[in-house]
Amino acid sequence: MIRRRSVDVIIDHGMSSQVLLRGKENAVIRPNLVEKGQLTHPLIIFNRTIQRAMDLQAALPASKSIVAGSIPAAVSDADIIFTCLGDDAAITETVETICKSGVGLRDKLFVDCSTVHPNTTNQLATTFSSHRADFVACPVFGAPAMADAGQLICVLAGPGHSVKKVLPFCKGVMGRANIDYSDQPCGRATLLKVIGNTFILNMVETLSEGHTIAEKSGLGNDNLHQFIETMFPGPYTAYSGRMMRGDYYTRKEPLFGVDLARKDVKHALDLAKGSGTRMKAVEIADEHLADVQTHMGSKGDIAGIYGAVRQISGLRFEN
Length: 319
Fold this sequence. Notes:
Shape: globular
Number of strands: 10
Structural class: alpha/beta
Order of helices and strands: EEHEHEHEHEHEEHEHEHHHHHHH
Strand content: 15-25%
């Protein structure tokens, strides 16, 4: 997995757009932008590690991209800049680097797809506004397989005239649907993203407990999975299958890393505390995520909650 501080940059001169992406997000979003984004000129790719940039270039169709030497060089020729980084510190540091680079940002449009605290998103909007640049928040929902198929759900918030410029990259390119919060505060999009991710967390917790009791009570995992397939097709069935196959501990790299999952939980619990509410189910799931970290380190996946629940129930972490 690419480290937090590694940043890729992709620029399309034809549509005057640029994308800064990181980790698994870029691997699935980039091909869709190239193949479905109606680009007329090669993308410009930047990565702090040149070999990674070259590897990214090799993964795209021939003659569709070139490698840039620096972020400022990439940003200077772009009108629309997409960012998608792993946490609040990473996106904040990247934006600070851009703003201090000396590149004129006036009238450029920055679009952040990162899952961060709404306060961070609103601060980014303020920062770009102070440089007379526009900003739209556009976090996305969807597992890597959905991203690869262009089936993400894009959540957009910010000035309506700016959101309109981003929409052509969303439904039909990166995603299958948009949730449009035009003319609402930018932080409203990441507020939904953080709350929405707790639904995914609770789904995994429910499946983990269900499969564990199914095994110990004698119902059996196959019988439970048949019910899940019938009653809850889609993400529930997909995660259930991952648990049964042991994918939650055999993967070389996580689909939804435990470190990022706990970062999202931290944001959710902070929002709950700030609004005078409590999310007890999320607190329990976070305890299990901590167990996953202890057992697997940063290679742990959110689906590893199943292993944690198994251990608590007297079974081995690995099924």
